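Following up on my earlier thread - several people asked me to post the actual chain instead of describing it. Fair enough. Here it is, all 327 residues.
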Amino acid sequence: MSNQEALTSNFVTVGTEHGPMVSDGWHGTFVPASELLLAILNAASTPSTLEQLSSALDISPDQLAPVAQRLEQLGLLTRDRTSSDLTAIEMIGHAVLPHGRKADLHSLPPQPWSGSLGSPTTSLPADIEIPAGIRALFRRRSRRDFADIPLPLGRIADLLALSVFDAQSIGPAEKQAQHRVSPSAGGRHPIELFLLVDRVEGLEPGIYWVDAPSRGLTIVPGGREPARVLLEQTYPAAMRSDTPAAALYLAAATRRVAWKYEQNVLELVNRDAGAVLQTLYLVATALGLAATAVAVNEHPPNSAVARFAPEPIINVGAFCLGLPVKK
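Reply from S.P.:
Thanks for posting it. Predicted structure:
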């Protein structure tokens, strides 16, 4: 691994009849929790290069490298190279975002602005004609009840064809700018989609990379169990009648943005994610699907997805899908 790459630990410690064990929480692999192992994983609880870990643990890099490589294979360490793209403040903000403050239910929430705010107001005509092409915009709702039946593969194909697959290169190839349905700052398009499948006709449960240029789905090795766990964690049982049939996991390749914009990389990535989610919402609504965006950001990202990705990624959201429950 290069000096620019860092490792982040991803583990839980559990007690078993054989003593304390360590697991990545996804693949069911358990490793005895030795003092050295715990020292390495605790030292890597924040992104650290091999040299930094070596210094903190007082172990030579040559001795530590094969151990770190084996822990990567077990999913206990994840390569986290985003530190060269995001500032320290951005990394901290992204890591704590899923754990934001709880709402204060004992007071009223801030209200939208209303009234004239002390200045004259010009009333606009209310009798507008809604063009057929944008009617889905007015029907868009977050639908959180999913039918316990498989989602037809054709619906997934339609959704992706209309919201994702229109990818065309613009300008010199070396600049990698693209045109897609959703807008993106500088044409960088950092968002890559991974389809989490539970109940989709014609697809085995698992994780699939949405290959936009080739208009297809590529299976992610070892993704079956992580897909099931992610679907359950992405949409808590208290909020639904059943787990979604599928979900889109939004991963951002931050280097694409950092190549052009040295500052505010995370802000631009999150704006792009919002544009992608709104496009998915409108197309899903037009197709009659139940769909809802979920502000769940894994940090570090799912180990199966991170190992598959050819470059550093962060998770910036999810989009749950299924057939609606018939009333």
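The first strand starts at residue 7 and ends at 9. That should answer part of your original question.
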